[in-house]
Amino acid sequence: MSICSRIFAACSLVLLTSAGAFGASVFPGVVRTSAGEADFTIELTPEEYAAVKAEPRAILYVARNDRRLSSGKGGAGRGWQKCKYHMEGQTIKLRLPVKDEIQRTLIMYVPPVEKKRGVKGTTIFTAAFYPVDDDLFRRFPLKGDFHSHSSESDGKYDPETVGAHGRKAGLDFLALTDHYQLAPSVTLLKNFERFSLSSYLLLPGEEFHSKPTVLHSVAIGHSRGVNDWSNAHVEEFEQEVKAAGKIFEDQGLNKFELYATACAEVLYNKAREFGARLVIFSHPYNRPGHRFNAPPAHVDALLKRRNFDAIELGYGLQNRTVFTTLAKLRDEAREGRFYPVVGVSDAHDTSTRLGYSCTIAFAPTPDLDGIADAVKNDFSVVGRLAEKDGAIFLGNFRLVNFAYFLHEFYFPRHDEICRRQGETILKWLETREAEKLHDTKQELEKQQQELNEYQQKFWAH
Ligand SMILES: [Zn+2]
Ligand SMILES: [Zn+2]
Asked: Ligand nearest 294 Cα, by number?
């Protein structure tokens, strides 16, 4: 073997492992329905390319289970339509109509030689793209978490390590929300400025409580601690709570429930006064029977009052909490009351618990205001990604469908690049050497470039 061919063999092995991890990809993955039709490139792995080349009988089909793609070969009643395409290098080029908002799956299929009952063909690859209407196309899908803890309260890791864990878990945004304190999240945000990682949004956050701790709620984006205020202004706080109690007087609450509910009213208003963009009612049905469980009458009163922006539906890995909340929201919906929902981890061990329970916000702008806008206007979904092949998305029908597509075809590469960025930061945090910061930033920038290019390719701008 010559040196050249040895190098070539080594190179193709690298290609094989890096591209092979994801399988065939269609670019762009997301297109505008208003475009009418679009040009696509399918990037193949070396194995897939070799298989297509070796099989002259291979046929490329596109799914049109809605029977609405276009006229053409395949027969009116068929769910699959043959596609014309040509090869360019290791890629497939084709043009297709994109008029309807629905996932289009492409399949490279080799029919069996013999047409016989029970004899099946083989599939070389499947890939997909998704035309969307302009309102959704213009939005940025941001995966994130509104609720996590550091060692500044009862979490396991210091704030900066929590920040790095968030990126490593594939998150575009993360709020550190330590109990009774806003400060750790603000410090984290400031300390991360040294990495110049603008695509990773660290949000100011706090989990605030009544005393005793019946109320659990999260505020995001405010500039002054809600519990800092209530602790420093006890008399004023108690007076306001007393006044707020009148709102809930006729609801049959006992003294204890009435106090916690009135606390919520005062603290929710305070959070907004201090600039919170989102006030979230946390885990209303956490650990039933536990002494920290919120009394059902208190939860009912808060739901009726609705002085929050969203309610935690996806909560960590606790299915019981999630699905009892979902059952309650179903009952509320039957009565005509709708509440935006978010998925959060409430991770205390952020090295293992982030990235499973999350929110995907379809934000009009890639910032906190955009994320808050998405949550309040039902442009977000709850994601529960604990099972590799059993992802659960909760939200409205249109977004849930789109989220499943993104989870399968967009987020794997996004998450992989974010994971490397998180590891780059964790590595620097081990020593925190000032002279190594420059190299760390360069590495992060290179990874960021890779992510930007991928996103540019995936969205047909
Ligand atoms: Zn809590
Ligand atoms: Zn918490």
From this structure: 1
Distance 205 CA to ligand 2 centre (A): 11
What is the pLDDT at residue 13?
Answer: 37
* Residue position matching structure tokens 């695509």: 199
Cα–Cα–Cα angle for 158, 161, 166, nearest 5°? 125
* d(C-alpha 354, C-alpha 170), whole Å: 9
Query: Please, what are the domains in the chain?
Result: 20-134 (2.60.40.10), 140-455 (3.20.20.140)
Which of 176, 168, 180 lies closest to 203, judged by CA?
A: 176
Identify which ligand lies nearest to the alpha carbon of 149.
2
Alpha-carbon distances of 413 from 198, 407, 416, 453, rounded to whole Å: 19, 10, 5, 12
Full-model pTM: 0.92
Ligand 1 centre to CA of 179 (Å) is 8
pLDDT in tens, 146-161: 999 999 999 999 999 9
The closest of 309, 315, 314, 325 to 375, measured between CA atoms, is 309
For the cut 60, the answer to whether the pLDDT of residue 376 exceeds it is: yes
Ligand nearest the Cα atom of residue 177? 2
Separation CA 380–CA 394 (nearest Å): 9
- If you measure from the C-alpha of residue 336 to the centroid of ligand 1, how many angstroms do you get, rounded to a whole number? 28
